Amino acid sequence: MAKTKGESTGKMNRVRMIVIDSDLSDDAVSDLSQAIASALHFNQGGHHTRVITPARERPQLASGNGHAPESTVDESDGSVEEEPDSTESAAPRAARPSNRQYYKPKVLPDVDLTVGTKPFVEFAKEKSPSAITKRYLLIAAWFHDFASIETITADHVFTCYRAMGWTLEVKNPLQPFSDVQKQGWGEYKDKKFTINHIGLAQVQKMTAGSE
């Protein structure tokens, strides 16, 4: 009687799968494959057993930590798919603390803040700016007009700050010089600042309580 489509013949096939996971050399893999094939090629029940020989060992590239990367074996065709090293996809590195050291200004013992027709303290109280850039500009103007010093440094500024009892609340005491230069009020070069005529005019406009 002919078998119709979808109808079972009643014959049962027995399938046995053996998976061996081991690190072997090429010769050992070949010997093991032949031994398995001889033992299981045709069993007593008359059922054929298919032997899938493992793929040849592939040279593994060492990962960044000195160990070979893990591999995933696809048993369907014996191919090997290497997984990416997880060490590179770890959590973002923590920000490194900054070790940059900024210049620490000092008081100039030889600077006389009382020279000229108006001492610095009196001059500063008349103008009394609160912005750091304006204070730097004020100090440069006083040294230019009353002490005949056209170029100043952070030490000149710090000396004047101490005389006024002001606190120099900046991490980098040289940065305000760059900010003043950006305003077009002078030139900052080699850690020294020279006020120009525009900066001097700006100081003349200052009044007590100005920014």
**Which stretches are poorly predicted, pLDDT < 50 over at least 5 residues?**
68-90
Q: What is the helix fraction of residues, given as a range?
A: 25-40%
Bulk shape = rod-shaped
Please give the CATH class of one domain: Mainly Alpha
**Averaged pLDDT, please?**
77
Binned strand content: 5-15%
The H-and-E topology, N to C, reads as HEEHHEHHEEH
CA radius of gyration = 43 Å
Beta strands, count? 5
> Which fold name is given in CATH as the topology of one domain?
Arc Repressor Mutant, subunit A
**Derived structural class:** alpha+beta
Quote the distance from N terminus to C terminus. 109 Å
Number of helices: 6
Q: What spatial order of strands do you see in the largest sheet?
A: 3-5-4
- Counting copies of identical and different chains, the oligomeric state is single chain
Q: Characterize the largest beta sheet: strand count, sense, and whether it forms a barrel.
A: 3 strands, antiparallel
CATH architecture grouping of one domain: Orthogonal Bundle
Can you tell me about this structure?
The protein is of the alpha+beta class and 211 residues long. It is built from six helices and five strands; from the N terminus they run H-E-E-H-H-E-H-H-E-E-H. It has helices spanning 26-40, 120-127, 132-146, 154-164, 175-182, 197-204, and strands spanning 71-74, 79-82, 151-152, 186-189, 192-195. A three-stranded antiparallel beta sheet has the order 3-5-4. Strand 1 and strand 2 form a beta hairpin.
